[in-house]
Structure to design on (220 residues):
């Protein structure tokens, strides 16, 4: 009995080491994939394209507002991903400017020192990239995880309920690493519930959905 036990033990130890090594390799590979920059879901727009698409976005939204003022109902406009992306880019650029106007910062005592560290203190925020494919909306944005720049890609079905936008994910990626939706959906829905005020639809909008690669917005 003692001899058989001693002869089996080295094999068990070797198997344990192999299993631990495999687990370590998988963990490292997952980390590398999570930190890798993925292919963008859509090309970034030039400043001129952003200006043009943002103007088109505002014109279409104004159509819905005017239809309501004229007593019409059920009007629809179709927005492209470029128009949505341009509107987000302009809103993101306007937010810091509004903050500075409301709370102007005091002038620095040493302007040369401030200029030298300006780039380090400036926020490096990248607007989300949006794309539509069939009835799926796909967004990609940058966040900080443990001090590392990390790309998050999420896709799913956009809709509305009780005057609020809804989102049901079908895909979730961190870097190039695919994460099962079942692992993140509860946390995502909880986060959306916490941010519900930001998901409220304008008073003149009754519904929205992605259809044939465009965002369809229906007026009340």
């Amino acid at each position: 009995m003692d001899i058989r036990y001693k002869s089996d033990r080295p094999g068990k130890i070797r198997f344990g080491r192999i299993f631990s090594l495999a687990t370590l390799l998988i963990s490292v590979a997952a980390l590398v994939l999570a930190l890798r920059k993925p292919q963008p879901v859509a090309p970034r727009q030039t400043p001129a394209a952003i200006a043009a698409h943002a103007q088109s976005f505002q014109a279409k939204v104004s159509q819905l507002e005017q239809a309501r003022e004229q007593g019409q109902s059920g009007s629809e406009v179709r927005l492209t991903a470029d128009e949505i992306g341009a509107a987000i880019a302009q809103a993101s650029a306007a937010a810091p400017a509004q903050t500075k106007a409301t709370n102007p910062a005091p002038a620095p005592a040493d302007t040369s020192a401030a200029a030298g560290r300006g780039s380090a203190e400036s926020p490096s925020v990248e607007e989300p990239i949006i794309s539509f494919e069939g009835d799926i909306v796909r967004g990609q944005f940058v966040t900080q995880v443990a001090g590392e720049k990390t790309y998050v890609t999420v896709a799913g079905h956009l809709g509305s309920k009780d005057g609020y936008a809804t989102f049901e994910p079908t895909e979730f990626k961190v870097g190039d690493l695919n994460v099962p939706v079942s692992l993140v959906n509860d946390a995502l829905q909880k986060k959306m519930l916490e941010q519900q005020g930001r998901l409220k639809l304008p008073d003149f909008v009754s519904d929205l959905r992605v259809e044939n690669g465009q965002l369809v917005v229906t007026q009340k």
